[in-house]
Amino acid sequence: MKNNFLDGKVLYLVPTGAHKTKYFDLFLEQLSSYNPNIWILPTEMGRDLLPNYEALSLKYHIKCDFSKSNNLIVPEEDIVVVAPCTFNTMNKIARGIADNYPLSVIHNALGKGVKCIIAPAMDASLWNNFALQESLRILQSQKNVQVIFPEYIYDDEGNLVKTTMAPYEKIVDSILHCYTKIKYENLCDGPIPESILEAYFNEFAENGKKLCDDGYLSNVAGFLAKRIPEGYLVTATGAQVGALNKEDIVLVVKVDNRVVHWCGTKCPTSEFPLVYELFSEFKNVDVIVHGHCKEITYGKFNKKYLSSCYLKYGEWNESLHINPILYEYGKAIMKLHGEIVFANSFPGAYNSYKEMRYEQH
Q1: Does 340 share its domain with 238?
Q2: Is residue 64 part of a domain?
Q3: Could you tell me if 202 and 233 lie in one domain?
Q4: Can you count the helices (H) and strands (E) in the chain?
Q5: pLDDT tens for residues 146-193?
Q6: Is residue 266 in a domain?
Q7: H, E, C per residue of 214-255
Q8: Residues near 344 by Cβ (< 8 Å), separated by ≥ 6?
Q9: Which residues, in sequence order, are CB contacts of 130 under 8 Å at separation 6+?
Q10: Which of 23, 168, 216, 303 has the most CB atoms lying inside 10 A of its own CB?
Q11: For residue 81, how many other CB atoms are within 10 A of its CB?
């Protein structure tokens, strides 16, 4: 498939005075492959930290203030991304302070309902500061704001020693997810047989609700998957796993040259390449649950389950990063991406998930 998911979309990127801004060119390189219209609106300190500023200004639009020099007409934004975001900038966004050009742009966008993604970049003491945590609460209460949590780094005793901004791959993934849920090629082969829904729907609905009610899955994030004789049953992309309807269940009948053939009314989970690769690799596994339990994803004692790198959603070959962990434990934590749990039944997956949570205390 062509990487044109952001074709023509206007992205306002706001780098601030955090150390990660020195590597902003890596972020731009990853984003550019999806063909967006990029505008860089740095804070004053962010501008000073941008790598190869002159070279960047020749390749991208950069606007630092309210001046109308060069008759530059800034197009209407589709999305605003504040990354990396300092303690100071994050608090100002939450409290409505617009004392410079990029902050004015951010608040204007928020008032229009434009999507804003914020990737905090600060040390652990600032992240845990009461003012920042209140700002986090305010920002997370806004429907058009997404805060990408930083990576937590603990010592062997479970003490938080460092927080660092999520990798740029995670931020790019979050931007893509705003515009395309499905990255892989797929074909609908017709409706799902009613006999299959009758046989399996209640199992999916009851266990999905239990996993959500107990905090292992959250709303539309995550999936349930089960191997059956006819293929693979999975929850649909965008399905509310805790309140499933029959149209939220999809039967994948085959994968041919990485084209996913499915039956149902909705497309399979955006993570289906991962589902397929795991079922293909682990022949004795009948059930896979992918959840997002922050208590586990960012847990103090999760090192043995944790992948060494971030796994991009919806792409092939990402399972290779967690296969060794799954072979050893039957469950794994995808760095900043949530958990994968194997079992032969959904109750078995629930119990395994519960054990992971207990280990964090």
Answers
A1: yes
A2: yes
A3: yes
A4: 13, 16
A5: 999 999 999 988 889 999 999 999 999 999 999 888 999 999 999 999
A6: yes
A7: CCCCECCECEEEEEECCEEEEEECCCCHHHCCHHHEEEEEEE
A8: 285, 286, 287
A9: none
A10: 216
A11: 25
